[in-house]
Design a protein that fits this description.
Helix 4 runs parallel beside helix 6. 34% of the residues are buried. It contains 12 helices and 9 strands. It is of the alpha/beta class. Helix 6 links the parallel strand 4 and strand 5. The structure holds ligand C2E and calcium ion (CA) (3 copies). The site of one calcium ion has 4 residues, from loops. It is found in: Cell membrane.
Length: 278
Amino acid sequence: AALGSVLCAVLAMVGASLFQRRFASLDVRIRRALKSGAFEPHYQPIVDIRTGRIAGCEVLMRWRRPDGVLIPPSEFIDKAEATGLILPMTDQIMRRAAEELRDVCAANPEFRLAFNLVDSHFDSFKIVTTIETIFDRLAIPLHHVSVEVTERRPLKNVERARIVIRRLQSIGVKVALDDVGTGHSGLAHLQQLGVDTIKIDKFFIDVIAKDGSGSPFVESLVSIAHRLGMDVVAEGVETYDQLLYLRERGVQKAQGYLFGRPVPKSEFIALMERAAGP
Ligand code: C2E
Ligand code: CA
Ligand code: CA
Ligand code: CA
């Protein structure tokens, strides 16, 4: 009987830990993944469509499960934002990306890494110090860095965000407004935030149909951006016709499966080497 109850207790313990591993709530699992370094940066090329050269990359987060499977951000970014865990996750991804692409920056003076930030990054100047610390330590000049602030969700405090954006710009970091056209802010942020670049969301690029028919929305956005002295990046470019259409309308840069999907370090470095090769 004694043996039986010990067995039961052991089984219960094993059961509980298995249960926890499998069914622990998402924020507990995110915390654990953060500790074990399971979030990794993937890199998607951003191409200067006037020259065909790779101008930089967007850093996109992936969660590597112990079995090797990659979990996309759609499954954890919202929770990470809601819990504030996105802040240490961003620090970790920045540090890792800077280490991994240090040589790429050294070999390509114009190359920029673009990081996605969230609203709470604009609550204070902490993000400015974080970026300075990470890149200074690796002796990477800050003209290799840009950040993206999304328009998809409303900013809590636009005035404060604008001040943080100015400070970032003053140290050489470029700032892009992401997912333009998808948020609730209309064109207000474009004027207020003083960003350097706008990224037109894939949604509007998709409208440039495969048959090359145009999109008045894209044309208007490009013309407004250019009048405000901003650069334009088109997201989600998948076809050559879209590329031609955008180039004819003076769009400087584009990103999308036509040029390359987000890939881990080794593949991205190989891509850069092929691009530089004869
Ligand atoms: P986003 O910032 O708009 O990033 C672009 C997304 O579009 C990426 O999805 C990219 O893989 C995808 N994409 C690029 N080109 C194409 C294309 O030609 N066709 C299609 N179908 N898709 C394309 P991903 O990597 O799944 O990321 C989704 C979102 O998750 C991002 O959207 C961004 O909002 C968020 N995210 C990703 N990494 C981070 C991060 O490190 N921090 C934060 N705060 N958010 C992140
Ligand atoms: Ca982005
Ligand atoms: Ca985007
Ligand atoms: Ca998008």
